[in-house]
Amino acid sequence: MKVKNICCIGAGYVGGPTMSVIAQKCPEINVTVVDLNEKRIAAWNDEDVDNIPIYEPGLSAVVADARGRNLFFSTDVDEAIDKADMIFISVNTPTKTYGIGKGMAADLKWIELCARQIARVATSDKIVVEKSTLPVRTAQALKNILDNTGNGVNFQILSNPEFLAEGTAVDDLLKPDRVLIGGDLDTEKGKDAMQALVDIYAHWVPQANILTTNVWSSELSKLTANAFLAQRVSSINAMSELCEVTGADVNEVAKAVGMDSRIGPKFLKASVGFGGSCFQKDILNLVYIAKSFGLNEVADYWEQVILMNDHQKRRFAANIVKTLYNTVSGKKISMLGWAFKKDTNDTREAASIYVADYLLNEQAEIVVYDPKVTEEQIYADLDYLGSRPDEENRKLVKVVNTSKEACNEAHAIAVMTEWDEFVEIDWQTVYENMLKPAFLFDGRKLLDKHKMKDLGFKFYAIGN
Ligand SMILES: NC(=O)C1=CN([C@@H]2O[C@H](COP(=O)(O)OP(=O)(O)OC[C@H]3O[C@@H](n4cnc5c(N)ncnc54)[C@H](O)[C@@H]3O)[C@@H](O)[C@H]2O)C=CC1
Ligand SMILES: O=C(O)[C@H]1O[C@H](OP(=O)(O)OP(=O)(O)OC[C@H]2O[C@@H](n3ccc(=O)[nH]c3=O)[C@H](O)[C@@H]2O)[C@H](O)[C@@H](O)[C@@H]1O
């Protein structure tokens, strides 16, 4: 079959960019992205394409190209479901904060709501695509809901997990290492549904990079990929602590290790710990799944990746306190970068939030500068941790618009994100305007150690 109308439920970091690229590359298909969040949809429809709700390099140009032609953003979920031949579910699947599996399992309530809504509205056959990251075997639950509460139409369920990384979403979508499609390989209808999705991606992705598997392999591969990636970060971060006590330099170790072609150079950058909305939640989900099958050794193995990450964030903050003579009470500490990585405005699970929280509990004053994150978001992130009431946060946390403003008269500076502009800062002037001794903590191993020391800073980098 040829797909003519696509509906995507969820206009977030995945649904928005993914559907924009599909619409750009497949001008003959109408793509409607729907969301319950009216503000978000209004922003996607903003006349000025630079005001779309997600910052990703290159995204506004893609949206400008397709929006209004065959790309639409709407809050009318029912209408978009009704019209579509293929429905992507791209809603959030965060860690559960209540009940059984609290703090570990994925919360599937938004997925289930989507399934029930599709079942209620659909009066013609639909291909339903899992785009969200889901526990292995969710497709079975989706099928049960759709078949038991639907109007007797045929539903084919596919799994098509997304591997884009924020900050490089458009490039990742245009040139994916692979596109993974899982489906029912045993029936003609299943195979046809898979082919329909393969045909969409084949508009711009070479056939050799489109991988088809059974649905469970596809669901589990997504969790596995994120677990492996996060594991590499925790592995190098574990080594960073050993480097600090032995005089080895973690960047040199990473380079030497990564040149082994079996290991490879990517994802070996030591840091204050990985952040982002997915690594932690997906590994916790994997741990929960393993435990629920009684596979305790498997669960413990993967849980260690998270424990190491928590340790890294904590020890970075603790090192600041220890270095500043064991007290930061009343001291001004500047944080450069708040988002969980550069080139994004996303702050979910950013290491900076945990470091700030630790320092606030030690009664430090925090000044934050991030080129893409709003003041409102930074306060919301701190409130979320619940360590401080609103009013207190606002007294102790200042958000400024330039790195210069952030650094003036600071006791210490912590570089949290790898924004390129932090390398370009006039560090000589920063040093002159800091309280002495001037402490600089480089959480991303971004800055030249020797240069910073020559300028007069007391310089501490993760992994030396
Ligand atoms: N953020 C990322 O880089 C990646 C995320 N993923 C996965 O993709 C999924 C979505 O993630 P994000 O886009 O980051 O989440 P998000 O939170 O940015 O977007 C999800 C959107 O779904 C909407 N929504 C929820 N329930 C709805 C419903 N019943 N009807 C209509 N709209 C509804 C929400 O209002 C929200 O705008 C998650 O499962 C995540 O694990 C996968 C790869 C990359
Ligand atoms: O499922 C998801 O949400 C996505 O999760 C990650 O993408 P993302 O979290 O957007 O960004 P990454 O580039 O993976 O970075 C994650 C965190 O790890 C940190 N990191 C990354 C690499 C590294 O070498 N060191 C390191 O500390 C980053 O600074 C960041 O805090 C994966 O890379 C994507 O493939 C996946 O689709």
Automatic annotation (TrEMBL):
<dbReference type="Pfam" id="PF03721">
    <property type="entry name" value="UDPG_MGDP_dh_N"/>
</dbReference>
<feature type="binding site">
    <location>
        <position position="166"/>
    </location>
    <ligand>
        <name>NAD(+)</name>
    </ligand>
</feature>
<dbReference type="GO" id="GO:0003979">
    <property type="term" value="F:UDP-glucose 6-dehydrogenase activity"/>
</dbReference>
<feature type="active site" description="Nucleophile">
    <location>
        <position position="278"/>
    </location>
</feature>
<comment type="similarity">
    <text>Belongs to the UDP-glucose/GDP-mannose dehydrogenase family.</text>
</comment>
<dbReference type="InterPro" id="IPR036220">
    <property type="entry name" value="UDP-Glc/GDP-Man_DH_C_sf"/>
</dbReference>
<feature type="domain" description="UDP-glucose/GDP-mannose dehydrogenase C-terminal">
    <location>
        <begin position="334"/>
        <end position="449"/>
    </location>
</feature>
<dbReference type="InterPro" id="IPR001732">
    <property type="entry name" value="UDP-Glc/GDP-Man_DH_N"/>
</dbReference>
<feature type="binding site">
    <location>
        <begin position="278"/>
        <end position="281"/>
    </location>
    <ligand>
        <name>NAD(+)</name>
    </ligand>
</feature>
<feature type="binding site">
    <location>
        <begin position="91"/>
        <end position="95"/>
    </location>
    <ligand>
        <name>NAD(+)</name>
    </ligand>
</feature>
<dbReference type="GO" id="GO:0051287">
    <property type="term" value="F:NAD binding"/>
</dbReference>
<feature type="binding site">
    <location>
        <position position="40"/>
    </location>
    <ligand>
        <name>NAD(+)</name>
    </ligand>
</feature>
<feature type="binding site">
    <location>
        <begin position="10"/>
        <end position="15"/>
    </location>
    <ligand>
        <name>NAD(+)</name>
    </ligand>
</feature>
<protein>
    <recommendedName>
        <fullName>UDP-glucose 6-dehydrogenase</fullName>
        <ecNumber>1.1.1.22</ecNumber>
    </recommendedName>
</protein>
<feature type="binding site">
    <location>
        <begin position="222"/>
        <end position="226"/>
    </location>
    <ligand>
        <name>substrate</name>
    </ligand>
</feature>
<comment type="pathway">
    <text>Nucleotide-sugar biosynthesis; UDP-alpha-D-glucuronate biosynthesis; UDP-alpha-D-glucuronate from UDP-alpha-D-glucose: step 1/1.</text>
</comment>
<dbReference type="InterPro" id="IPR017476">
    <property type="entry name" value="UDP-Glc/GDP-Man"/>
</dbReference>
<keyword id="KW-0520">NAD</keyword>
<dbReference type="InterPro" id="IPR014027">
    <property type="entry name" value="UDP-Glc/GDP-Man_DH_C"/>
</dbReference>
<feature type="binding site">
    <location>
        <position position="262"/>
    </location>
    <ligand>
        <name>substrate</name>
    </ligand>
</feature>
<dbReference type="Pfam" id="PF00984">
    <property type="entry name" value="UDPG_MGDP_dh"/>
</dbReference>
<feature type="binding site">
    <location>
        <position position="348"/>
    </location>
    <ligand>
        <name>NAD(+)</name>
    </ligand>
</feature>
<dbReference type="InterPro" id="IPR014026">
    <property type="entry name" value="UDP-Glc/GDP-Man_DH_dimer"/>
</dbReference>
<feature type="binding site">
    <location>
        <begin position="340"/>
        <end position="341"/>
    </location>
    <ligand>
        <name>substrate</name>
    </ligand>
</feature>
<feature type="binding site">
    <location>
        <begin position="162"/>
        <end position="166"/>
    </location>
    <ligand>
        <name>substrate</name>
    </ligand>
</feature>
<dbReference type="InterPro" id="IPR008927">
    <property type="entry name" value="6-PGluconate_DH-like_C_sf"/>
</dbReference>
<feature type="binding site">
    <location>
        <begin position="132"/>
        <end position="133"/>
    </location>
    <ligand>
        <name>NAD(+)</name>
    </ligand>
</feature>
<dbReference type="GO" id="GO:0006065">
    <property type="term" value="P:UDP-glucuronate biosynthetic process"/>
</dbReference>
<dbReference type="InterPro" id="IPR036291">
    <property type="entry name" value="NAD(P)-bd_dom_sf"/>
</dbReference>
<feature type="binding site">
    <location>
        <position position="444"/>
    </location>
    <ligand>
        <name>substrate</name>
    </ligand>
</feature>
<dbReference type="GO" id="GO:0006024">
    <property type="term" value="P:glycosaminoglycan biosynthetic process"/>
</dbReference>
<keyword id="KW-0560">Oxidoreductase</keyword>
<feature type="binding site">
    <location>
        <position position="35"/>
    </location>
    <ligand>
        <name>NAD(+)</name>
    </ligand>
</feature>
<comment type="function">
    <text>Catalyzes the conversion of UDP-glucose into UDP-glucuronate, one of the precursors of teichuronic acid.</text>
</comment>
<dbReference type="Pfam" id="PF03720">
    <property type="entry name" value="UDPG_MGDP_dh_C"/>
</dbReference>
<dbReference type="InterPro" id="IPR028356">
    <property type="entry name" value="UDPglc_DH_euk"/>
</dbReference>
<feature type="binding site">
    <location>
        <begin position="269"/>
        <end position="275"/>
    </location>
    <ligand>
        <name>substrate</name>
    </ligand>
</feature>
